[in-house]
Design a protein that fits this description.
The protein is α/β, with parallel strands linked by helices. It has nine helices and seven strands. Bound molecules: D-galactaro-1,5-lactone. D-galactaro-1,5-lactone (15L) binds near residues 76, 77, 113 and 165. D-galactaro-1,5-lactone binds near residues 77 and 112.
Length: about 270
Amino acid sequence: MTTRPVLLTGASGALGRQLTRALAAEGLTLRLTDIAPFPDPIPEGASFTRADIEDGVAILRLAEGCGTILHFGGVSVERPFEEVIGPNIRGLYHVYEAARREGARVVFASSNHAIGFHEREETLDADCQFRPDGYYGLAKAYGELMGRLYWDKHGVENVNLRIGSSFPEPIDARMLSTWLSYADLCRLVLRCTLAERTGHAVIWGASDNSRTWWRRDHRGRIGWAPADTADVFAGQLAGKVSGNPVAERYQGGGFCAMEYSRKAPSPSDPLAD
Ligand code: 15L
């Protein structure tokens, strides 16, 4: 898979920029694209084309000859339905159609918000039920299911990275469970690109955090294990909580609390969960 170029959508975003630097340094030939200009110097062996993920023809052209599509484009936070549907559903379809035509593998930046309404007391395996915590998380769940469909029906390989919180450092108590260091992210995506075979895989995108809520996944298929941990930030962050009971109860945190309007269920209600 490696000798063919790698298309990276969302290249101008925070994670896209990290991946660009790290993967170019590994000698991969990168085709970068984003709706926003690329803010950094373009590394050797890479090219940048400004394009809208909603433009299917542009995505087909950009993917020509590629062996892997790293799909990090689209809306990356909770937004109203009408803002999410174009980039995150239609754009995703364009990526999968391009992958099908090229026989390419898709590496999809999914999110913990696809399962955000699981309680923090639960420990989840990657085959747990989707419990999206908003329109953004719902689109990520749809993206993972799109991968399921394209593998079953067309043999398009795909790795779905259920990313926790990928930032330079964890910034609150929740991220002691969800943090994914940039270095771990870059190694993870490199392994997704280089692995011989993946089939349809789902991998938790988190560093080696002892407070994790997540367990079994398909990382064995790609030979990846995180090297960093949020544990070293515990002293400074343990008490840094939001104060919002909905945010603190569920894994998706503040995304769960946005527009939350459910009445508190009584503990005797058999449908309480
Ligand atoms: C995400 O999916 C977002 O892209 C990111 O901005 C964070 O909010 C992260 O989840 C998180 O849950 O911390």
